[in-house]
Write a structure and sequence with these properties.
The complex is a heterodimer of chains A (373) and B (126). Helix content of chain A is 69%, strand content 0%. Chain A is an all-alpha fold and 373 residues long. In chain B, 68% of the residues lie in helices and 0% in strands. The chains are: A mainly alpha (373), B mainly alpha (126).
Chain lengths: 373, 126
């Protein structure tokens, strides 16, 4: 029989603990298989709770952060009333959202209307399970990490299209189709940039990609390959912004034109789920950028032993989340400083600029590998 | 293998959380009478005109087709480029020159496809 196992410190701890507990069972029930299956299930539950905590816990923090960043960019103060500097404002908003009425408009396809937020939430959760947060903190260390991320990212589009179509609202339909066209277009350059990372690091496993950046800051992929790495990072930044439907590429939502796009008709908790998915996607995309370009959980060593020893004392998890929040801050600053392009400019930008540039970048990267060996 | 089993849990986790939230909203939520005006799809305050399930522009469909072509071509490149370093170092039975020629042919087909679509005007958004 197939016996599942998980290899990380928590997994070892659970595996040692379970036989001690099952020893109290009647002898007829005791077996090695039972022990390992129970250990596996406990481990899975721990992993799921951890990822839920990271994902759902980060959303209120990010919403607060976005409000503050936005406010300070526009010379305002942002939320100030509830709690110290408005810190519990988001929690109050979540509570308010829970008590809002949930209903589908007349003519809406009810089944699809309520399925859409579920599909939208699947993608970011699965991606989050693949990210190595620290040297031995990764939920699913699969060898096909990057192709899997690209495959899973496609799920979100289905949810958005379903949500827009099932609402029986013209703005929703228009927003959903625009957003579908935009996401699938930028998905190509997203896949190509990750392909570039896979090519230079020689693995599709995210842990291997992180480990290939061990060393100083100049071993991170953003700096390791002269110029090309930085261009790849910028292209990744652009295409992931468009993937997430964030401003300046938020033509799908464009509140001035489409009154909110595909989630116009959603209210209460289903709407909150779309919002949650958007913010989790922000975390996972930043985590992906950190893993692929910014050295993952490695400390930013600079090659001077005295400084590096101090930097290495900080745990990898802290460095990882530090870099993730730096990336998130970058996404937020871009959102509040750039203007939104028109829909045709957006599509032209992808197909007539980003895609050719990506192909050139791939070729240049291949040439660099062929020459440098 | 156990990694993929755990991953399949996550496939359902997102859906489960959204379902749980929707049910919570339905249970806790404030309720009002379902009047005609409340249930009408939002249309900037006007009376809703007609149905939203209309025939739509074919341009979106063409972009979806293009996406299919390019995304699958990108996925085809993955196995080759993942081992590109090893191939160049001569650690595989493949000859580096043959691989490079194959890749050039593949990329030429890809680029000519893009150029054709561009010239045909499919990439033009109207």
């Amino acid at each position: 029989m197939f016996v599942p196992s998980v290899t990380n410190p928590i997994g070892d701890f659970v595996r040692n603990l379970v036989p001690q507990v099952t020893a109290y069972l009647p002898v007829a029930f005791q077996s090695e298989t039972l022990d390992s299956v129970v250990a596996f299930l406990i481990n899975a539950v721990i992993c799921i709770i951890a990822v839920c905590a990271v994902n759902i816990g980060s959303a209120p923090i990010l919403i607060y952060m976005e409000r503050k960043v936005c406010a300070h960019v526009q010379c305002r103060l942002g939320p100030m009333r509830l709690g110290w500097h408005g810190t519990i404002q988001t929690i109050a908003d979540v509570l308010k959202m829970l008590f809002k009425e949930v209903y589908a408009p007349s003519g809406a396809d009810k089944l699809m209307f309520y399925t859409a937020p579920m599909i939208v939430l699947i993608a970011p959760f699965m991606v989050c399970a693949l990210i190595p947060f620290s040297k031995d903190l990764v939920v699913a260390d699969v060898s096909m990490g990057i192709p899997l991320i690209i495959a899973v990212n496609g799920f979100g589009v289905l949810g958005i299209l379903l949500g827009g179509w099932s609402s029986n609202n013209k703005y929703s339909l228009l927003g959903a189709l625009r957003s579908g066209a935009q996401i699938i277009s930028y998905e190509i350059s997203f896949a190509m940039i990750l392909l570039f990372v896979v090519m230079i690091s020689g693995s599709t496993n995210l842990m291997d990609i992180t480990m290939s950046q061990q060393g100083t800051v100049f071993d991170w992929w953003i700096f390791k390959i002269p110029v090309l790495g930085f261009i790849a990072f910028i292209l990744f930044f652009i295409s992931s912004t468009a993937e997430m439907n964030r401003a300046p590429f938020d033509i799908a939502e464009a509140e001035q034109e489409l009154t909110g796009g595909y989630h116009t008709e959603y209210n209460g908790t289903p709407f909150a789920m779309f919002y949650l998915a958007e913010y989790i996607a922000l975390v996972t995309n930043s985590a992906l950028a950190t893993t692929c370009f910014l050295g993952g959980f490695h400390a930013p060593c600079i090659g001077i032993a005295a400084v590096d020893n101090v930097l290495n004392m900080v745990p990898g998890l802290v460095w990882f989340f530090g870099k993730v929040f730096f990336m998130i801050w970058c996404y937020m600053m871009v959102r509040w400083t750039f203007v939104r392009p028109r829909v045709d400019q957006l599509m032209d930008f992808e197909w007539k600029f980003l895609l050719p540039v990506n192909l050139v970048l791939l070729t240049a990267g291949a040439a660099w590998i062929a020459i440098s060996g | 293998m156990s990694e993929y089993i755990i991953l399949s849990f996550f496939l359902f986790l997102g859906a489960f959380i959204a379902a749980a939230a929707t049910v919570t909203g339905l249970l806790l939520g404030y309720r009002t009478k379902n009047t005609k005006n409340k249930m009408a799809p939002y249309e900037c305050g006007m009376q809703t005109i007609g149905n939203a399930r209309i025939q739509f522009k074919v341009g979106y469909y063409l972009f979806a087709l293009l996406f299919l072509v390019f995304d699958i071509e990108a996925l085809f490149l993955y196995p080759v480029l993942m081992n590109f370093k090893e191939i160049m170092a001569g650690n595989t039975p493949l000859a580096p020159a043959v691989v490079i020629i194959d890749l050039v042919i593949f990329m030429a087909i890809l680029v000519s496809g893009l150029a054709y679509a561009w010239k045909k005007g499919i990439l033009k958004w109207e």
